[in-house]
Amino acid sequence: MGCKTFCAVFVVIVSVSVVVIPILVSQYLFPVGDPPLLELEQWWGKGQEKDHKHDTTINEFSISLSDEALNDLKERLSKTYFFANLEGIDWEYGINPDYVKELVEYWRTKYDWRKQETILNTYKQYKTKISGINVHFQHYKPEVKEGQRLLPILLVHGWPGSFYEFYKVIPKLISASTDDYAFAIICPSIPGYGLSEAPHKPGFEPFAAGRIFSKLMERLGYDSYYIQGGDWGSAITSAMALMDPSHIRGLHLNIFTTSIFSGPLSYLQAKLFFPEKEQKKIFPITDVLVKMLREGGYFHIQATRPHSVALATNDSPAGLAAYIVEKFAMWSGCATSDTAICLESCFSKDELLTNVMIYWTTHSIASSMRLYYETMHRRELRAASRIPITVPVGLADFPHELFRIPEPWIHSRFLEVVQFTEMPRGGHFAAFEEPDLFANDVIQFVEKVEKRIVAKKAEELKETTA
After folding, report:
1. Nearest-5° angle of CA 362, CA 200, CA 162?
2. 181-188 and 149-156 as β-strands: parallel, antiparallel, unpaired?
3. Based on C-alpha coordinates, what's the Rg of the chain?
4. CA distance 206 to 105
5. Which of 372, 373, 397, 441 is labelled catalytic?
């Protein structure tokens, strides 16, 4: 055997080993288990379940804040203690104090909550008690024409967002009705976020939220539906797809993770075999790590000592706004340079403040933070992240997301990827920031899945009649 031939064979063997051996070792050392049970009964209400009546009623209501609460808010805003910024500093140390002062003044003197109430009540609001807590959701159900099918889609937000993130998307989904189907749209609030009651017991994590939302869809009479999520919404809807795949027509995510990307050999595979555009998502590694450290401080606090920071943000509206709005600035591609932020190129002051108001008026910032603590203190959830998802999946990859996964890695977690879209712009709050891109991607995903379902049924019919 010549030297060239030997070298070529050697390179092939090494290359295959780099890919195959880590997979085999991983499967041996960390075998994939079964998904958590959907039927697990959990009680998140006050006291003991046996002391409460079983209540399945669904109650409609309108969002409305008392004049006393609004007056208290304005008084608190007027007494905010501001601090001076450093000379020559913009957003490097966190939110720009000068911008906070400007935002608070607008909030106190120009922001019209009553107008925002009208906008929020555009779609009907409901609450129903599930597992001991009141769960809030919006529900749009169209009149179905002859020949049309109803396609329900559950849209789940994350932190520090809310159901309000989807307001510019909902009318786009409504108008996407075809002769074959029309969308029914359900936007819940995660328990402990905004208008959904907070769990009264420790341990509430994404699978618990998934069980509640599965029960919600069942209570609404939906046996087969689509689910969409970003941030915690991604974790919750992925949990639903693992626990209850028979009821999920498709799963659409705008942030997604796989367990494979944490291993060093996975990075070696990427460096050797991935296209350059995929490598840029994770290399240089030092840049990615620096970004995660720079943007992950909140995560560490909320996963370890959420109550310590919660009291301050629960007591001060300006402090709450500063804490939340900074995330919208840093995670949405609003930066025009390393330091300059053009936040209002992505969101208006009214939009930012309405999202903050959902937390302020419900005093829910503390309970929203707890989801980080509960998730990070459940070892079995890390094992669940390795379980493959078998339902049809659509993934929207926005360029300014907190972290991005190379396309070749996603197939280790998502076994039936129907659509993978690399977006031209947009970040973490995709539905809020880029409603057209977001809605169009969801609509295209649904169209593809529905065509596959029709084709599969036709094939099955053909086989039975043959």
Report:
1. 35
2. parallel
3. 24
4. 37
5. 372
Q: Based on the residue annotation, tell me whether 225 is a catalytic residue of this protein.
A: no
Is residue 126 within 8 A of residue 139, CB to CB? The reply is: yes
Burial class (CB in 10 A: 0-12, 13-18, 19+), 50: exposed
The CA-atom distances, in angstroms, between 464 and each of 206, 421, 457, 460 are: 41, 36, 11, 6
**Whole-structure pTM value:** 0.91
Contact 334, 325 (CB under 8 A): no
- Could you report the per-residue pLDDT of 126-161, keeping only the tens digit for each? 999 999 999 999 999 999 999 899 999 999 999 999
267: exposed, middle or buried (Cβ count in 10 Å: 0-12, 13-18, 19+) = middle
Q: Which of 136, 167, 231, 441 is catalytic?
A: 231
231 is catalytic: yes
Tell me whether the omega of the peptide bond preceding residue 160 falls within 30 degrees of 0, making it cis. Answer: yes
458: tokens are 């036709």
Q: Convert the pLDDT of each residue in 223-240 to its tens digit.
A: 999 999 999 999 999 999
Residue 338, SS3 per DSSP: coil
